[in-house]
Amino acid sequence: MHLEIITPDKKVFAGEANSVTLPGTEGQFQVLNRHAPLVSALAKGDVVVDTGVTKQTYLIDGGVVEVLNNKVLVLAEAIL
């Protein structure tokens, strides 16, 4: 799936990912390839991106995620 992590200042990540783990307001959840459409608020916490080769972690200060047509867009308030 294609993943983008964007803050108001810059694009932090853009590329293919096998999975992404996100800090939802009601707890942590994971999005996998071909996930159902979803929009969710995000809390402060770690976004873990698994590309199959590496795992990258970004600490965000809240935001919103949209999953649609095998594309994941994370709009983060800030990267801490």
Question: How would you describe the overall organization of this protein?
Answer:
This protein has no helices and 7 strands. It is an all-beta fold and 80 residues long. The chain has a single domain, classed as ATP Synthase, domain 1, CATH 2.60.15.10. The protein has a 7-stranded mixed β-sheet, with no helix packed on it. Strand 1 and strand 2 form a beta hairpin.
What's the CATH class label?
Mainly Beta
Q: Outline, from the CA principal axes?
A: globular
Could you state the oligomeric state of the chains shown?
single chain
CATH architecture: Sandwich
The CATH topology annotation reads as ATP Synthase, domain 1
What composes the largest sheet? 7 strands, mixed
Count of individual helical segments? 0
Total strands: the figure is 7
Biggest sheet strand line-up: 2-1-7-6-5-3-4
Quickly list its features.
single chain; about 80 residues; mainly beta; ATP Synthase, domain 1; about 70% strand; globular
Q: Summed up, what is this model?
A:
By secondary structure, the chain is mostly beta strands. It has no helices and seven strands.
Give the helix/strand layout.
Blueprint: E1 2-6, E2 11-16, E3 19-24, E4 27-32, E5 38-50, E6 55-68, E7 71-76
Parallel strand pairs: 1-7
Antiparallel strand pairs: 1-2, 3-4, 3-5, 5-6, 6-7
